[in-house]
Amino acid sequence: MEEANSSLLAEFILIGIPYPPGLRTFLFVLFLLIYVLTQLGNLLILVTVWADPQLHARPMYIFLGVLSIIDMSISSIIVPRLTMNFTSGIKPIPFGGCIAQLYFYHFLGSTQCFLYTLMAYDRYLAICRPLHYPVLMTAKLSALLVAGAWVAGSIHGALQAILTFRLPYCGANQVDYFFCDIPAVLRLACADTSVNELVTFVDIGVVVASCFSLILLSYVQISRAILRIRTADGRRRAFSTCGAHVTVVTVYYMPCAFIYLRPETSSPLSEAAALFPTAITPFLNPLIYTLRNQEVKLALRRMIGGSRAKSEL
């Protein structure tokens, strides 16, 4: 009975990231600005892909639109709560809210891993098998692949949330982190967490390692195909279509591997690394894809030009 009662915590308190008190206002404004720009930037990508007929029927840009939705969602479940930590007073998160935050973060994060893999496969087909690409990667197939990524991600998120919160929690309720994530929450459990740690390591390790390996294999084949292109301009255009994806994959996977695929420790480096998949990468993705993708930039110009023409009429 005592163990059952100990699991009935009503709330958790997120400690947040350590910072000098004098920087409270600056950090509040900084992360609020990051959140607003993340939403606006990804919304702009989403609207551009949807509005431009040359983009929204192509699988690559269907994937890009879905990526924007995921980035907006991840940012929304993490960054506002992080920003609140830079205001005065204690702001607890309800027990159910902590469960929801952990679930949606891992649901969306794993879906993003699968989506990056699909984007790499799409580039592989487009560059290595260009004549067969329209048949192998149709809009219908890309929609089915995206649906499969969402389903697999939801299963992964549910598994992690159920395993984490099946444990009893008692005593201290202060989570030494800026959001409810598995390693930080497990430190508060009043039970042996070795099974959870093993399953987390294996489950996340399989998702990260398998997706990253498939992406790496795709780009090995892509690099070989590009090097066989005879003209320098052709090689440059082929590399430009892949450069943005390689950049965001690197920025996303390296911090995730650092956080989850090493012995469990609590350190400022872990929190700094966690800022990348939760706040920095969703903020950077629209910039990377608009600055390094000529087709997106041209679509933006067409959309802006069309809007100006309508306003002049």
Automatic annotation (TrEMBL):
Start and end residues of each G-protein coupled receptors family 1 profile domain: 41-289
Coiled-coil features, chain-numbered ranges: none
Transmembrane segments: 26-49, 61-82, 102-121, 141-163, 198-217, 238-260, 272-291
GO MF assignments: G protein-coupled receptor activity; olfactory receptor activity
Protein's cellular compartments: Cell membrane
Listed SUPFAM superfamilies: Family A G protein-coupled receptor-like (SSF81321)
Domain of life: Eukaryota
Protein name, per record: Olfactory receptor family 10 subfamily G member 3
Organism: Oryctolagus cuniculus
Originating gene: OR10G3
